[in-house]
Amino acid sequence: MKRKIIEEITSAQKILEAARKEFARHGLDGARVDRIAHKAKVNKAMIYYHFHSKDNLYQAVIDDHLSQIGSFIEHTISEEPNIEKLLLQLAYFYNEILTKREDFVPIFLRELATGGERMRMAFKKMITEKGFHTKLKQLMDRGKESGQFREMDSLQAIISFLGMNMYYPLTASVINTVWEIKDEKIFREKRPTEVVNLFLYGLIKR
Fold first, then answer.
1. How remote is the C-alpha of 32 from its chain's centroid?
2. 58-201 homologous superfamily
3. Average pLDDT for residues 85-93, to the nearest whole number?
């Protein structure tokens, strides 16, 4: 029984990985279940066994990606009380997951371009169920109360931090060309530290 469960989990994960690449390249409408089955090396019927429909599989790809983010954030917020270390860990994580899963970027951008209903609801569910927005705001407010941070709008600050981490991975192909970034790997490796330093310390000496 345990072996069967493990095999089913493995096959479902292979399907998700193959589907993520297929949806990234062709979108929901252009994606083909038979191509996903071929890439995942499973029978086409196995896809319907696990996910029932192409739409459900597409949603599962989004949910799977967000669950990776949710699990990390939940663990990090619970374990790391130091706000600077926490922000650095989050920045490195965002950089790593969007580098390893570059094929999710087209899915994300296509969702935004079409209204992003699936993505929006999935994000909302993840954030509200785990209370990330409340916990992060509490950490920012605590920093203000202790005198570590200046007076500012905590929500604006959090959204700005998230934007700083996501902008480059989502627009790397354009940014690399415009700013003539020759070594993307090195630039990406330096990005988390630069983001956190800029976010916490700004540019102007005071």
1. 24
2. Tetracycline Repressor, domain 2 (1.10.357.10)
3. 93
Please report, for residues 130, 143, 172, the alpha-carbon distance to residue 89 in angstroms, rounded to integers and kept in the order given.
18, 18, 21
Distance CA 89, CA 95 (A): 10
Domain ranges of the chain: 1-52, 58-201
Please enumerate in sequence order all residues whose Cβ is within 8 A of that of 148, keeping only pairs 6 or more positions apart, or say none: 83
Instruction: List the CATH code of the domain at 1-52.
Output: 1.10.10.60
Distance CA 15, CA 37 (A): 7
Give the DSSP letter of residue 150.
-
Q: With cut-offs at 50, 70 and 90, classify the pLDDT of residue 125.
A: confident
d(CA 10, CA 59): 18
What is residue 164's three-state secondary structure?
helix
Radius of gyration of the chain from Cα atoms?
20
Tens digit of each residue's pLDDT (9 = 90 or more) over 143-188 = 899 998 999 999 999 999 999 999 999 999 999 999 999 999 999 9
pTM: 0.86
Neighbours of 145 (CB within 10 A): 9
Digit-coded pLDDT (tens) for 94-122: 999 989 989 999 999 999 898 888 988 88
Contact 84, 2 (CB under 8 A): no
- Nearest 5°: CA angle at 38, between 35 and 43? 110
Please state whether 144 falls in left (phi above 0), alpha (psi between -120 and 50) or beta.
alpha
